[in-house]
Amino acid sequence: MQQPPSFDTWTSGFLLAAATGIFLFLLLVSTKKKTNTPIAIIVLAFSLILVQYVLFWTGYQQHYPYFILVPQVCYYLIGPLLYVYYLNLYQKKNHKFYSIHFVVAFLAFVPNLFLWLKYLGLFSGKIPLLIIVTNPWFIVTHLLIYVALIGLFVYKTSYSSSAYSQLRTRWARYLLLLFTLFTAAFISYYILVQFPFFNSQWDYMISITMSVSIYSIGYFIFKEPSIFNGELHTGLFLPKKSKEPIEVLELETIYKDVTFLMQNEKPFTDNELRLAHLAERLNVSIHLLSKVINEKAEKNFNQFVNEYRLEEAERMLLNGDETPIKSIYFYVGFNNKATFYTAFKKKYQCTPSQYRNLHLGVKA
Fold this sequence. Notes:
By secondary structure, the protein is mainly alpha-helical. The chain is built from 17 helices and no strands. The chain folds into two domains: about 10-220, Rhopdopsin 7-helix transmembrane proteins (Up-down Bundle); about 250-360, Orthogonal Bundle (Arc Repressor Mutant, subunit A). The longest helix is centred in the middle third of the chain and has 30 residues, at about 165-190. It starts with 8 loop residues before the first helix and ends with a helix.
């Protein structure tokens, strides 16, 4: 007699992980930062994989069979999407034929489409290209190709000695390590499943390894600005600190240099500005510049930069040309309206529109 569908502690946890992944996907997409989009889709893809796994483990797959071949499409997407992220990270122009990387994923989608048509009663023939999604070693080969391709890309682009490039290289290598662990976990499943000692607990543990790898990628991508601003995991990502003593006069000189740069060249208008970028322009280490800003300005990097952005926004609000608020926050370097309004209200205790109306004598 067939057991009724049911959840246990493991499957409930995986379902929660899938829900968390979908939430993280929405969070990454909501940042409106295009470089995050490939990683956001990777996290969504893995969440869909977990949903199908849960359906299989719990027995609900017989009631909801529509996701049976979805994981295979997702596996074929992960490598190309991560490769596109690396292109964005290194600001490489996407080759006009880069979409060729997604051909295999598209071919894997075809059996899904015909399977759905079959469930709807609109197709009754043989499902084409089924071997692409039923032979796991095709997926293994595809994943290994992208581990090698990304590894080669990182190796070839890790030649600069600047502080920003060193930080970016460490970051790229860390993501590559997570992707490699994910690939290794996937391969280990299809090797271990052939042995008699393999059971559902082993299956769960491999899925946990893959989950941790993918969600770690998503988490660190979401935290990428903090990493490149020297505010998160400094020991892991930032170049080693200099052991030479820092004189007070040197700190003062660097602080004067950075304030002069901010006031005259206005690098803060770039919404992708990072501490590493400023350090490179001033020819100082990331750690030293962070120390200068923290001690001399008594602010962290984001607060320091946003102060200049707010001052520039204030100037634009009062210049009398009725520049739209939407144009102002984007021009001064804020990524979105909500962040701008929050920072502005915290400093001026009113909205930008209210501030303009108050100081220009315009009726609200």
